Every structure is written in C-alpha cells, then in structure tokens.
Amino acid sequence: MDISVVIPLYNEEESIPELYEWIERVMKENGFSYEVIFINDGSTDRSWEIISELNQKNPNVVKGIKFRRNYGKSPALYCGFEQAQGDVVITMDADLQDSPDEIPGLYKMIKEEGYDLVSGYKQKRYDPLSKTLPTKLFNATARKVSGIKNLHDFNCGLKAYRKAVVKNIEVYGEMHRYIPYLAKNAGFNKIGEKGPADTLVPEHLRQETDARIRILRHIDVLRGFCGCLLYWCR
User: Confidence class of residue 151 from pLDDT cuts 50, 70 and 90?
Assistant: First the structure.
C-alpha cells in the first residue's frame, strides 16, 4: 500500500465528508493505493456515525477508531500509527485547514528524495499577533531544544513519515508537538519541510473552526512550551 492517511478528530461532523471526498479525488488522480484512518477522539456530535457510514461504503479504504472520551491528539496518533499499513503515512487535521492536494508532493519527498519525515509549513499567516507570537516563541524554543533548525512549525498537523518512523516512535502525553524530535532521537535524521500548506476553507467552516480554536490556542501553546522544556531536561 502506498499511503495511509491518519486523521485524529474531535467534533468534525461538518468537515469529514468533504475532507474524505477531497482525499479520495487526490488519491485517484495520482493512482495511489491508500487507506484513511479516522480516530474519533470522544466526539459528542455525529462524527462517529459519519465515519461508520463512510466505512460501510468503502470498507477496504476507510477505517475508524473510536475513543469513549476525549484523550487528546497524542493517543489518537499513537493508535493511528499502530494501525497504519502504508509505505508513507500522512497525518492531517480534520478541519480542512490542511490541504490533501499537498499529499503527492509529500509522498514524493519521502519516496524519491529520501526524507524520513516532512512537515508542512503555512508560510502565509493572517492571524493576529496575540496568536502568532506565542506560536513563534514555542517553535523557536523547539528548534533550540531539538537541534532541528530547518522547521518553522513543529506543531503543524500536516506531516508525512516513512512507515518505519511511526513504527519506532511512541507518541504520548503532549508529545505530538515534538514528533520531529522523537524521530531524530530514534535515528531518523533526514527531516524536511514543505510549504506552503495552505488551503481555502469554506467561510462557514472557518468561522466555526476559529471560534473553537481561539479559546484553546493559548493554553495549548503554553502546555507545549512547558512540555518542550521538561522533555529537554529529562
């Protein structure tokens, strides 16, 4: 199998169908053999019902993992990585902020250019300073701690991995933010970046996504900043 797409999600009932159709179109246009693994992280909306419906229509492609409560992104990725069978594993968020159109380029960087891990990078950001400044501080600290100088956005959800990478790292706690560092420590040293990873999101979905993310953004960045320092000091 060429590609496994691993998608952790929480309450994304509106975006799941569109995201899957987008992934399906890209895969068919490029002739990839693939699977899509949705990890439902304790959603309280109809996310699981929609995943189940997609599985019934495409049982050989769509797989679902259901958590009884919200455990967080790291456990979701851990379970998705455990099930992934593709030679290249792609992770992306379910809110349509990550573009499936980036998949062929990411795949090429892994398979043809020999990268172990490639991270997406949103070069153009239109967020206010109150959002971008904490993120820049976190990424500057992560670069300093990890020694990986060429990544601008450690926490970007859009990443590609050689299969061996995801089978040899353990993602736990808040460590999804430092996967490049985990990969480097496991001996996978060819780590690169691909940009831009931007996409146009329908306005109604963007407004809903922004409203949910805005409250949690500062808390997540602060936790990530502290976690990065703690991991470095172990």
Answer: confident
Q: Largest alpha-carbon pair distance within the chain?
A: 48
Mean pLDDT of the residues in the chain: 84
How far is Cα 75 from Cα 42, in angstroms, rounded to an integer? 12
Angle at the Cα of 180 (from 70 to 65), degrees rounded to 5?
30
Distance CA(35)–CA(42), nearest Å, equals 22
What is the layout of strands, in order, in the sheet containing 3-9?
A: 62-67, 34-41, 3-9, 88-91, 159-162, 117-120, 191-194
Helix (H) or strand (E) holding 194: strand 191-194
pLDDT tens digit string along 24-52? 999 999 999 999 999 999 999 999 999 99
CA distance 77 to 171: 7
Q: For 160-198, b where at least 16 C-beta lie within 10 A, e where not — what string?
A: bbbbebbeebebeebbbbbbbbbbbeeebeebbbbbebb
Contact between 104 and 30 under an 8 Å Cβ cutoff? The reply is: yes
> Distance between CA atoms of 148 and 160, rounded to whole angstroms?
16
Tell me the pLDDT tens digit for each residue of 96-137: 989 999 999 999 999 999 999 999 886 555 455 555 666 777
Contacts of 196 (CB under 8 A, 6+ apart): 121, 122, 123, 124
